[in-house]
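Worked example 2:
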Amino acid sequence: MLVALVDTGVSNLTSLTNALSRLGASYEINSSKLLEANAIIIPGVGSYDAAAKKINLVRNFLLDAISKEIPILGICLGYQLLLESSEEGKEKGLGIFKGKAVKFSGVKVPHIGWNTLENLKEDKITEGIKENSYVYFVHSYYPLLEEDIALAKTTYGVSFASIAKKKTVYGFQFHPEKSGTVGLKLLENFLRLSK
């Protein structure tokens, strides 16, 4: 099992690579391995524009991966890069999910800490996850989707899609690698999609 981690240039990958190792997956941080991988993860912590410039360099590889039904997971900023745009920057996103990332208003920003997965829908990725399970968030922007692709929602001032899915592409607004046993289970479920 080879997982390709897309280098967005802004991520601290240690927690994620440790989680993948615990689950028995090997990984490469190298865009040249995208189409050879069993699964692809787009991590992200940091500036939207800097990450979007990097992700757009491998746009065609990612679109090819989708056509080949290679599972793709965007985490936090990586999820927001799957959208068309973000209020945080001027660069275009991948546009796989219709919508944009918008900044929270009327609540303390960033949204940091544990919060629940609500309205959980059945899917292979949510298998074994209970309604209102807690996961760990660190973000100032949230996905405002134009299509009903949410598998779970979370409320922080507003309700937003904390897990989204379109074909074989998933987005997690939280950090599964920092979300204890629930996060590890979600990552394990994602890895199983590629077997």
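The mean pLDDT is 93. Residues 180-192 form the longest helix (13 residues).
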